[in-house]
Specification:
Blueprint (H helix, E strand, L loop, with lengths): L1 E5 L9 H15 L3 E6 L9 E3 L2 E3 L7 E3 L3 H11 L3 E4 L4 H13 L3 E4 L19 H13 L3 E4 L2 H10 L5 E3 L6 H4 L7 H5 L6 E6 L8 H14 L3 E6 L5 H11 L5 E5 L3 H10 L2 E4 L8 H8 L4 E4 L2 H6 L6 E4 L4 H13 L1 H18 L2 H16 L14 H12 L1
Parallel strand pairs: 1-2, 1-6, 2-3, 6-7, 7-8, 8-9, 10-11, 10-13, 11-12, 13-14, 14-15
Antiparallel strand pairs: 4-5
Length: 403
């Protein structure tokens, strides 16, 4: 099958959506499909990856807001003989996917990666939509597609509550287990000047408000009082970096917190494999791929069991969980793992087994291929629930309500 994936983010950017698109592309191609990615950032040496124009975000210059050139993409898509379009964001490239589906008459599947209601704070107040408007926008966009993929059952339930009528499939992004269990190539301790006897607590993700990193800083500050030979490693970057640097300096632990910045997908394995504990406190995750990646690499996890994290992690299966982001129980669990070698080894083994048995990318890619075929087998695209108005009329109507 010839599949076009439309996304506002892609590797080498490090985030859950970019990782998901890349992994599904890789595994679907291994199964004999042709997968073409259209995004504002793509690797220069990757086959079937097409860069579209994009503007830098003011606060996050490493990200781009796509400006798709509709006619060029339509011509290229026709040349590639696309049979399915799969969007991974409901904004600029998502709109492009709707137009592409309408113009060349192919099914459109959308993956609802992100709980948009939790990200409204990125828009300044004059432009910030209400939570109700965001839910209505999500319903509108999903109902413009032929099928929707939700990474978890909780997200599926949320979309149903919004009023989504399109078929919804639950399909998490799998983990490339063989990659996270390979051998080591270099020492991250030598690279970052970390003492050989220090325990490394790792965080991987966007350095942004929704990741709750300020909570992790407070938790590490308390942990460091109990175990002084500890270092917190923050892998990633984002708009909250300077605030976090200011806080660790104020707390007097600047020399015990390493800001590694963006690390390539190839190198991130070294960080998972050589750390002693993975700490994660986000309460807005759709799935939380990084916690599964950590487990796959044999790295025990302490996390807050909220939203997508609660859906993918099981207490004792490589992790210890807290129900709420409260400092003391979170620090207690980190201390238990770091001080009890047998517990740490047991969690490491059980985490690897848990991911291998439940989250293999092979299984997820085969299921996605089945979803493609189930959708493509429909004799006609289903009638949109909003009637027969054009896409631009829909866009005008939702825009009036959204803001």
């Amino acid at each position: 099958m010839n599949i076009g994936m439309m996304s506002d983010t892609y590797i080498p950017q490090i985030n859950g959506v970019a990782t998901s698109v890349h992994l599904f592309k890789e595994y679907l191609e291994e199964m004999g499909n042709n997968v073409y990615v259209f995004a504002p950032v793509v690797p220069s040496n990757e086959n079937h990856a097409f860069k579209v124009s994009g503007l830098k975000f003011f606060f996050e210059p490493q990200h781009r807001f796509a400006i798709p050139l509709s006619q060029k993409i339509l011509k290229l898509s026709s040349k590639l003989d696309l049979e399915m379009v799969h969007s991974h964001a409901p904004f600029s490239m998502g709109f492009q996917a709707i137009r592409l589906s309408e113009k060349i008459g192919i099914p459109h599947i959308h993956t609802y990666h992100t709980l948009l209601t939790e990200y409204r704070h990125y828009l300044p107040m004059p432009l910030r939509p209400t939570e109700k408007a965001v839910k209505e926008f999500s319903m509108w966009f999903c109902n413009m597609t032929d099928a929707v993929i939700a990474p978890t059952e909780k997200i599926k339930t949320e979309l149903l509550d919004y009023g989504v009528k399109a078929p919804i499939y639950t399909l998490p992004t799998g983990i490339d287990v063989k990659n996270f269990q390979r051998g080591l190539r270099y020492s991250i301790r030598e690279k970052h000047g970390i003492p050989s006897n220090d325990k490394i607590i790792l965080f991987v993700g966007r350095v942004a408000k929704e990741k709750n990193i300020l909570f992790l800083i407070d938790a590490f500050f308390e942990l460091h009082k109990r175990i002084d030979n500890t270092t917190l490693m923050i892998v990633g970057d984002g708009p909250e970096r300077q605030e976090i640097i200011h806080k660790v300096s104020h707390l007097g632990i600047r020399n015990k917190v390493v800001f590694a910045g963006y690390i390539t997908r190839e190198d991130i394995v070294e960080y998972y494999r050589q750390s002693d504990l993975f700490a994660f406190a986000s309460i807005t995750e759709t799935q939380g791929l990084v916690v599964l990646e950590a487990l796959s690499a044999g790295l025990p996890v302490v996390a807050v069991a909220k939203e997508g994290i609660a859906d993918v992690l099981v207490e004792g299966k490589g992790c210890l969980l807290v129900e709420e982001p409260i400092i003391k129980p979170f620090v207690d669990k980190m201390e238990n793992i770091l001080k009890d070698r047998n517990l740490r080894l047991r969690l490491s083994d059980e985490g690897v087994n848990y991911v291998n048995q439940n989250w293999s990318m092979d299984t997820m890619a085969k299921r996605l291929q089945d979803i493609y075929h189930e959708t493509a087998d429909l004799s006609k695209k289903r009638r949109k629930i909003y009637g027969t108005k054009s896409f631009f009329t829909y866009l005008h109507d939702i825009g009036l309500r959204f803001f």
